[in-house]
Amino acid sequence: EVQLVESGGGLVQTGGSLRLSCVVSGFTFDDYAIGWFRQAPGKEREGVSCLSNSDFSTYYTDSVKGRFTISRDNAKNTTYLQMDNLKPEDTAIYYCHLEGRSVVVGYDDFFGQGTQVTVSS
């Protein structure tokens, strides 16, 4: 069973920092990427960042470039999202996301339960 467990959300003032963690287990993809989505009240879920396991390429949505950094500790099966210089518009529920491919099942993806990030002005 694939499990994604997030932690690290909370309340922070504008300009502050938080680090989100996502422990992923139970998957057997041949090629995969782990990243983060977020959903603010009244808005659609959007992709924030992801890290490919095959070529270690990274993606950041324009609004977080230069402020957020994604990384992974394979020994701990944990992916991190370091968020610096936070802004009120970063307030959202952040979801860890795993997507991958395998010869047996093809493409599949999973979301974690989400962690709340609130940035006060």
Which helices and strands appear, and what pairs or packs with what?
Layout: E1 3-7, E2 10-13, E3 18-25, E4 31-39, E5 46-52, E6 58-60, E7 68-73, E8 78-83, E9 92-102, E10 106-111, E11 115-120
Parallel strand pairs: 2-11
Antiparallel strand pairs: 1-3, 3-8, 4-5, 4-9, 5-6, 7-8, 9-10, 9-11
Brief overview:
With about 120 residues, the protein is mainly beta. The chain is built from no helices and 11 strands.
Structure in words:
0% of the residues lie in helices and 59% in strands. It has 121 residues and is mainly β. The strands form two sheets. Strands 2, 4, 5, 6, 9, 10 and 11 form a seven-stranded mixed β-sheet that branches. It starts with a strand and ends with a strand.
